[in-house]
Amino acid sequence: MDEKEIVLTALEQVDKWYVQLAGIKEDTLLIVSKKPVPEKLVVNGKEYNVKYYTPEQYIETIKVNEEEFRSFHIYYFVKIYMRKVLDILTQLEVEKMSLNENQLR
Fewer CB within 10 Å, N side or C side of the chain? Predict the structure, then answer.
């Protein structure tokens, strides 16, 4: 079973209607949902830890630690929410570039 199938199968065990974004890194599933999800899910006989965030918590987390987004392979997302995430990451990148430019002067 590939990563995408694992993520999509795991989402069948939660209320997918509320999920904004989902991904995987090794044996950890990332689920951003408006509704709480279990701490562990079993997919095809293998247990996965679940890293759960509300949509607001996740936005605040990636503002401080963008690796929380970049380190996961994302296979499911709501387009409007993903756009918001990518806008924030772009803004952070622009801020880094302007800081680096100011340090060079």
Answer: C
Under 8 Å between Cβ of 51 and 31: yes
Tell me the per-residue pLDDT of 15-39, one tens digit each, with 9 for 90 and over.
999 999 999 999 999 999 999 999 9
> If you ran DSSP here, which 8-state letter would residue 18 be given?
G
| 8 phi and psi angles, rounded to 5 deg | -65, -35
Report pTM.
0.89
Q: How far is CA 61 from CA 23, 69, 101, in A?
A: 16, 9, 26
Q: Are 75 and 3 in contact (CB under 8 A)?
A: yes
| Cβ–Cβ under 8 Å, residues 105 and 98 | no
